[in-house]
# Entry
Amino acid sequence: MAIPNSGVSTLIASVPALLLLTPSDSVIVLALTDSGDHLSLRGPVIRYDIPPAHHFSRESAETIARVFADSPVDQLLVVITTPDGTDQQSPRDLPLRTQVSELAMLLQAQGIDSMLAVWTPEFTEGAPWRAYTADGASGVLPDPATTAAAAAVTVAGETIAADRDQLAARFTPAKSAERDRLAPLIQSASRRALADRLTPVRATERLTRATSAARAAAQGQLPVGDDDHADLIATFAVPEFRDLLLIADSDQDHLGLEDLAMHLWPLAPEPHASHLALVVAAHTYQRGNGIWARTAADAVTEPLQLRWILTKFLDAGVPPRKFADLARQAGAQTSAQLGIRPHPVTRRPPQRVRTQRPGTDRG
# Structure
């Protein structure tokens, strides 16, 4: 089924909201499925840096096929964004044309036969796009802020980063005076948190405080007191408690834990800060936002094994649900190790809920 040019324009303009990032010099891959009278977005969204030497590898095609293995794909929409080619009018002269043809052949070898590739210089209102097809299909983008995907971002209380540096800037420590004031409280709280692992009742109480704070964070209510900050930072830095707090059953639960950890990170010293950044990375990955997950993983400076596992999953394009299943299995084992009843979310079967703005990042 052919996509009307107006539909292509809207899909391209939706990319920044789908990724929570305005990409540049990138290859973005979206899966489309036949909804009867039109093709609609379904499943993950992948972003690559434009490959070195402008070459797509077989591994790239294998990763794309693996990412979309659980999604019904009727057609892939591949968006090339680079300012190169702005003055070109013919599809034959578009940038990376040979490489796009190469990618199409590699994907065919993976069983993906239908691909529409388009080029645009940028994601702004009025920016042109052109298809890498003989008919020279083309159009202009609407204002990306007016798309349904952008409206969903606003409703969720999230923002679209202008670039990856803006994403990384979210990991900016608090002022030294504030961190120094909290340091002795965190040190004392950390000793208590480590001791609480040995007492099932206290371990349960500590987890309950953390999950209650996460639920409040999901409603926009973040902790404010120094004692609460220190207690929660200490909890997330104990690997057993941290691993149990990687589990969630809904986007709202993921967002609550993510927002809580992000709120605490600027106040935390190392190694506590690395554990908190890892919590942010794990929950954003499970929500399907690979770009933010990789940014958070890059903020982990301690040699944490779970960070290595998570980045391997990101590099291989492993579907987020598989990481969620792994976290749930590890959580059940940790609960048994601590001698406590399974953490509340580990007792419920996983819900196969499609994420609102799925995506992964290979840059």
Observations:
- The CA atoms of residues 220 and 256 lie 9 Å apart.
